From TrEMBL, chain A:
Species of provenance: Nonomuraea endophytica
Example GO molecular function: branched-chain amino acid transmembrane transporter activity
Transmembrane regions: 28-48, 55-75, 81-104, 111-129, 155-174, 205-226, 232-252, 259-277, 283-306
Record protein name field: Branched-chain amino acid transport system permease protein
Keyword Signal: no
Cellular location(s): Cell membrane
TrEMBL record, chain B:
Cellular component annotations (GO), alphabetically ordered: plasma membrane
Top-rank lineage group of the source organism: Bacteria
Protein name as it appears in the record: Branched-chain amino acid transport system permease protein
Membrane topology: Multi-pass membrane protein
GO biological process: amino acid transport
Length: 328, 292
């Protein structure tokens, strides 16, 4: 099994690296960039959602802040784009830590409400602060490279792929660390975890901030890649829902769960856009899919494929059941 | 000063509608600990139904309410029995938000496809005039909206306090096991609770169609406002929600006339965050809202 998964990992990486050279046109490269971006965001969401069980519908707030931060630092402060990207991501992480201190004080439904409110507040602020952000008309970001549109897609495919790799590695490291163990304890029973000496408040804030950091990086890259920021789209609750839906569909307890979900949902979304045009019916499709996943597959696809989780998460079977397996 | 009085008047009138809608949300939370994110989407569904009934059949928006209320009651019972009741008990809080979020997206997409994304509004003879008291002028349609919302709330309170069904509902909210022990069929009552909650969205939709233009995506703004109201009021408390609704309606109205619309909407979130920081269980919630 180990060699099989290693081979699969190798084949997946090779396939991803070769993808832009294999597809016949630049549109498919563009769709690939979008898919990899969503995969990175969903995996990043999963650093909070998967480990701690805190479902945030508002992570698009950090995406938007990262995008606007990068865009504004380039246009207003004249920074080179790499620096702007990094500075903006650090700023968003600090902001997320501050917001996190307040947000993770509440649990369950209240936390979801807070996360929804966060996106709405950011949207209102960015649209209202016209002199800085350009308001509803949006923000234009200058081109980073002197390349054609298609070549730019190629470059950003690899940039987003690198980000995805970084997020996956981070998730993997956390899941094997003491910190990750504490986060999982929070998911299973927060009060017991706290009683056992896990610094739950600090852990939650750190998870919240790390999760926001990578989403902000994705937002910053998006700003430089797409070069036109519209507050309605960038701070959209719907893209926040995409992160949750992708993670749930793939499986929140697994490293590659959100990635798998993104590979299914992002291309499906693009297909809907082409097949049905600018109609709103894609919202209905997303909504129905979310209802179906929540009702019938809250554990996601990965557990169905590989059976019981292997060390990546807390066991769901009891010690007695395991004993039975050994005996049988 | 006149400006503030004007804001106060408008705020109270809008607060009535908020109170009616928030009472529905409190009912859902009371009977099932569910935060129903799709409530505003159903509100706009009702508004669009009112629009269709008005334009196609020429029915007055207020007279469509008796038609939409039974439909929404049945819808509410179905949503609870067929969807929410299936969720695993230990995950119901998080998963129900996602589930109802899916419903909201579904409704928004359907409305956008059928009615397109442009603004729709219902105009009738009496909705453009205003009542002037001193220097304050209050539009008649808002006064009617307040009246309808207030009347519905009064009926709802009457039902909750006096009728046997209301007693069963309150017993289920207060202590499910104890309610079952005295012979209340709590599962069924929970379903009816959702029916009543969604019926408030039907009334709200009829009123909303009368007082403001609407488009499919406008329910997002309402989610934030209503959530802020029920958190400030204390999750699950119908009275708390009503008081918080009028309070926030007034604050919104005052800020709207003195500053601008962006800040007026932001006030809801300011109150939401302050409440969560200072008193996470809300100001009128008591035991039920403890640590949610």
């Amino acid at each position: 099994m180990r060699t099989v998964s290693k081979l699969l990992l190798l084949a997946g990486t090779a396939g991803a690296l070769a993808y832009p050279w294999l597809v016949p046109n630049y549109y498919l490269v563009y769709a690939g960039v979008l898919t990899v971006m969503y995969a990175a965001m969903a995996t990043s969401w999963n650093i909070l959602g998967g480990f701690t069980g805190y479902v945030s519908l508002g992570h698009s707030a950090f995406f938007g802040l990262g995008a606007y931060g990068t865009g504004l630092l380039i246009t207003r402060a004249g920074m080179p784009w790499v620096l702007a990207l990094l500075v903006s991501a650090v700023l968003v992480t600090v902001a997320a830590a501050v917001i996190g201190v307040a947000a993770v004080r509440v649990r369950g439904a209240s936390f979801v409400i807070v996360s929804i409110a966060l996106v709405s507040v950011m949207n209102l602020l960015v649209q209202g602060w016209r002199s800085l952000t350009g308001g509803a008309t949006g923000l234009q970001v200058p081109a980073p490279f002197e390349l054609s549109r298609g070549q730019t897609h190629m470059v950003f495919f690899y940039l987003f792929l690198a980000l995805l790799g970084l997020v996956l590695l981070t998730w993997w490291f956390i899941s094997r660390s003491r910190f990750g163990g504490g986060l999982k304890a929070i998911r299973e029973d927060e009060d017991k975890a706290e009683m056992l000496g896990v610094p739950t408040a600090a852990f939650k804030v750190v998870a919240f901030a790390v999760s926001a950091l990578f989403v902000a990086l994705a937002g910053g890259l998006y700003a430089v890649w797409f070069r036109s920021l519209d507050p309605i789209f960038v701070f959209s609750i719907v893209s926040g829902v995409y992160m949750v839906l992708m993670s749930l569909l793939g499986g929140v307890r697994h490293l590659f769960g959100p990635l798998l979900g993104a590979l299914i949902i992002a291309p499906a979304g693009e297909y809907f856009l082409i097949a049905l045009g600018e109609s709103q019916i894609h919202l209905t499709a997303t909504g129905v899919l979310l209802v179906l996943v929540v009702l019938f597959m809250p554990e996601g696809i990965v557990p169905r494929l590989v059976g019981r989780p292997k060390g990546a998460s807390i066991r769901e079977d009891t010690a007695e059941q395991r004993l039975q397996e050994v005996k049988g | 000063m006149t400006l503030l009085l004007q804001g106060l008047g408008l705020g109270i009138l809008t607060g009535g509608l908020y109170a009616l809608l928030a009472s529905g949300l409190s009912l859902y939370f009371g009977v099932m600990r569910v935060v129903m994110v799709a409530h505003p989407a159903f509100l706009f569904l009702a508004a669009y139904l009112t629009y269709t009934l008005h334009t196609a059949l020429g029915i007055d928006p207020l007279l469509t309410i008796p038609l939409t209320v039974p439909v929404f009651f049945v819808l509410g019972v179905l949503v609870q029995r067929l969807l929410l009741a299936r969720l695993a008990a230990d995950q119901v809080q998080m998963m129900s938000v996602l589930l109802t979020f899916g419903l909201a997206l579904t409704i928004e997409g359907l409305l956008g496809t059928i009615y397109t994304g442009s603004y729709k509004s219902v105009t009738v003879g009496y909705d453009t005039k205003s009542l002037t008291i001193g220097a304050v002028s209050l539009p008649y349609d808002k006064i009617i909206a307040f009246g309808v919302a207030g009347l519905t709330l009064a009926v709802l309170f009457g039902v909750l306090v006096k009728s046997r069904f209301g007693q069963a509902l309150r017993a289920t909210i207060q202590h499910r096991e104890a309610a079952r022990l005295v012979g209340i069929r709590t599962d069924r009552v929970t379903g009816y609770g959702f029916g009543v909650g969604l019926a408030t969205a039907a009334v709200g939709g009829g009123v909303l169609a009368l007082i403001t233009p609407f488009f499919p995506a406008s329910h997002w703004a309402w989610i934030g406002k209503l959530m802020a109201i029920i958190v400030v009021g204390g999750l699950g408390s119908v009275v708390g929600a009503a008081l918080a609704a009028v309070l926030l309606g007034v604050v919104e109205g005052m800020v709207l006339v003195t500053v601008d619309a962006t800040w007026a909407t932001l006030m809801f979130y300011v109150f939401l965050f302050l409440t969560l920081l200072l008193r996470p269980q809300g100001f009128f919630g008591g035991r039920l809202a403890h640590r949610f």
